[in-house]
């Protein structure tokens, strides 16, 4: 492969400036860790590095000298590269361990994690937690340069202890006098909520950084109508508007500006880019890229909202005591005011080890000002923490109340809990079966909110997946009430029931499609379908159809044109969406279901082929020629997220010194994603 002049220029910029573009990582679980190690070979444990013994009395300090985050957003698909550079000021002795935390967006995949020492690049490995810890400890005890990323949550949890993201520990050990660059790349599809796209970068280096830079480049073919940047500290970010479609954002706080927020820890917050796109034809925007991969973004406008029937299922068990129960109550009071008194119906069931209804039975009543006031009085009086957690009874009761609602209405369950079943039915698989007995064929959507620590996210995600809804984790922090209100606001205006997207068999490979159905489509949201054409070339004509049930008439929208592009990212977006769909399907199937093994095999093969870290895959590097980066073209491909597949190579090749910007990228990525990074020198 030969690099074009443009690619060489971009590669030079990446290496010299330390900018890296990261993409999001998806769903690490407790059984998976990522470990990276380098040095002089030890073929037994695959740890490479110097052999000096660890000496905790070594003088000098570990400092982060550079932290650079570069995100590139193309058609809502974001690739983020975090580069961090760490230095050990000690001149002798053994390593000192430093801890960092990295937060990764829930729907993101890590696609690469690399380390550069003295001009030589090394790739990471994803192993079992026990094996990763063993390898890391061995390297650390011998003062070898090493790094490890592992889930930070307790065993059995889903690590969703941080708002918006999963949390990971990153442990690194860097030899005295060394300077190391870490580069982490993750990829994610930005989700449209309330008509807006948010790209959130966590900036929490836990110290001031001499060179801290964040760059976000946006390229949206639809064109932007508004753009907002919320910085965690001064200065204001600079925004260059190249065109209505292309925006370039840069943020570089000085050390003094970082210290103004916290003299010791520096910046501790989120860098948030929010933008709105121009309205398009109701049939959707279709992009076709290299190899015939395509994406269709569907967000119809100008439709009237459907009337909705909402049943609130709220956990008031003892574990909700303190701040959480007050936040749930405050949110409930605010949410009730969002009901449409002209056409909405609603009901409430509070559950601990018993059930308490408003009104007195589990029937629904029309939302009127008087009834909303009565429901608020009920919430004020009755939402108090007590008893066990009978999730089964609460959800079954709500499902029974909704299943006889008129088909013209959007039936929604809003389910909030902070824990696991401790009363009634304990087996979560049985609970799911009981719910499906009530909801099958009804179109009832269960929208689940995991609140605070201790949530069984896998169970709640499966319940929502099986019942036309979605799951969201909300941390029990100071903004929890606001987050709960925003979650319900997203459900405020259902526009279409029973959405189906159809493509011509002659045009599209039907087996390549992601999910083409959606029980409920809400105003401000977006349906995204990816697939592959029968031919790798862009077609001269297009044919797709979106159907569903609107408020007053059936919806029937046609698209007859697609935009052709040479962008290669559409294939990765296709793989990203397909793997996500397969993982959701796999998690919803029982362990003894034959189909589950087939789905798991498909997800595994795609994860390996596209170099995505998922709960099914591991990244591995071994001291061998198979894992060596032989030239800078390989390094360039890796930095762009192409990575190495299961047959490919890691990154252990020599190259010119790059001021250890890889470590800067790594720490930046870790910071951005909320992962705890431990650096040992």
Automatic annotation (TrEMBL):
InterPro entries: ITIH, VIT, VWF_A, vWFA_dom_sf. Residues 48-188 form the VIT domain. It comes from Lingula anatina. Residues 309-491 form the VWFA domain. SMART domains: VIT, VWA. This is Inter-alpha-trypsin inhibitor heavy chain H4-like. Transmembrane segments: none annotated. Keywords: Signal. Residues 1-24 form the signal peptide. The lineage of its organism: Eukaryota, Metazoa, Spiralia, Lophotrochozoa, Brachiopoda. Pfam families: VIT, VWA. It comes from the Eukaryota.
């Amino acid at each position: 492969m030969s690099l074009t002049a443009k690619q060489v220029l971009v590669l030079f910029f990446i290496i010299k400036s330390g900018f890296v573009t990261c993409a999001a990582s998806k769903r690490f679980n407790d059984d998976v860790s990522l470990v990276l190690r380098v040095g002089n070979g030890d073929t037994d444990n695959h740890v490479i590095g110097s052999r000096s013994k660890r000496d905790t009395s070594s003088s000098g300090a570990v400092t982060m000298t550079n932290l650079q985050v570069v995100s590139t957003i193309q058609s809502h698909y974001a690739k983020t590269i975090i580069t961090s550079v760490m230095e050990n000021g000690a001149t002798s002795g053994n390593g000192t361990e430093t801890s960092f935390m990295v937060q990764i967006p829930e729907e993101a995949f890590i696609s690469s994690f690399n380390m550069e020492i003295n001009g030589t690049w090394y790739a990471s490995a994803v192993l079992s937690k026990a094996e990763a810890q063993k390898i890391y400890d061995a390297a650390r005890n011998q003062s070898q340069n090493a790094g490890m990323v592992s889930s930070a949550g307790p065993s059995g949890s889903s690590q969703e202890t941080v708002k918006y993201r999963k949390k990971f520990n990153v442990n690194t050990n860097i030899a005295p006098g060394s300077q190391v660059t870490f580069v982490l790349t993750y990829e994610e599809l930005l989700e449209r909520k309330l008509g807006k796209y948010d790209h959130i970068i966590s900036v929490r280096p836990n110290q001031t950084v001499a060179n801290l830079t964040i760059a976000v480049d946006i390229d949206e073919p639809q064109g932007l109508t508004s753009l907002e940047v919320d910085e965690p500290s001064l200065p204001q970010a600079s925004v260059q508007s190249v065109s209505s479609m292309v925006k370039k954002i840069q943020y570089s706080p000085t050390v003094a500006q970082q210290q103004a927020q916290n003299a010791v820890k520096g910046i501790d917050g989120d860098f948030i880019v929010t933008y709105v796109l121009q309205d398009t034809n109701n049939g959707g925007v279709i992009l076709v890229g290299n190899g015939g991969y395509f994406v269709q973004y569907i967000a119809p406008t100008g439709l009237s909202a459907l009337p909705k029937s909402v049943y609130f299922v709220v956990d008031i068990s003892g574990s909700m005591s303190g701040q959480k129960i007050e936040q749930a109550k405050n949110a409930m009071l605010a949410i009730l005011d969002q009901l449409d008194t002209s056409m909405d119906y609603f009901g409430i069931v509070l559950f601990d080890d018993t059930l308490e209804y408003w009104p007195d039975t589990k029937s629904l009543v029309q939302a009127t000002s008087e009834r909303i006031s009565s429901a608020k009085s009920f919430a004020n009086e009755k939402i108090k923490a007590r008893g066990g957690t009978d999730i089964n009874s609460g959800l079954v009761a709500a499902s029974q109340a909704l299943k006889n609602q008129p088909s013209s209405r959007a039936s929604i369950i809003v389910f909030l809990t902070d824990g696991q079943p401790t009363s009634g039915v304990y087996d979560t698989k049985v609970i799911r079966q009981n719910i499906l007995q009530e909801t099958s064929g009804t179109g009832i959507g269960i929208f689940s909110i995991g609140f605070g620590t201790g949530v069984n996210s896998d169970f709640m995600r499966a319940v929502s997946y099986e019942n036309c809804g979605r799951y969201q984790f909300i941390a029990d922090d100071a903004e929890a009430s606001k987050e709960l209100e925003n979650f319900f606001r997203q459900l405020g205006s259902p526009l279409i029931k029973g959405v189906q997207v159809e493509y011509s068999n002659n045009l599209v490979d039907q087996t390549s499609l992601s999910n083409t159905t959606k029980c409920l489509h809400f105003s401000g949201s977006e349906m995204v379908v990816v697939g592959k054409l029968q031919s790798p070339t862009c077609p001269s004509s297009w044919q797709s159809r979106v159907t569903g049930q609107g408020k007053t008439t059936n919806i029937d929208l046609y698209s007859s044109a697609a935009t052709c592009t040479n962008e290669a990212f559409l294939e990765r977006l296709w793989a990203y969406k397909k793997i996500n769909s397969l993982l959701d399907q796999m998690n919803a199937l029982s362990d003894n279901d034959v189909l589950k093994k087939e789905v798991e095999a498909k997800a595994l093969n795609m994860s390996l082929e596209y170099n995505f870290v998922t709960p099914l895959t591991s990244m591995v590097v071994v001291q061998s020629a198979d894992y060596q980066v032989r030239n800078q073209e390989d390094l360039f491909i890796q930095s762009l997220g192409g990575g190495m597949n299961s047959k490919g190579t890691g990154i252990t090749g020599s190259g010119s010194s790059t001021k250890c910007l890889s470590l800067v990228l790594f720490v930046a990525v870790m910071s951005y994603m909320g992962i705890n990074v431990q650096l040992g020198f």
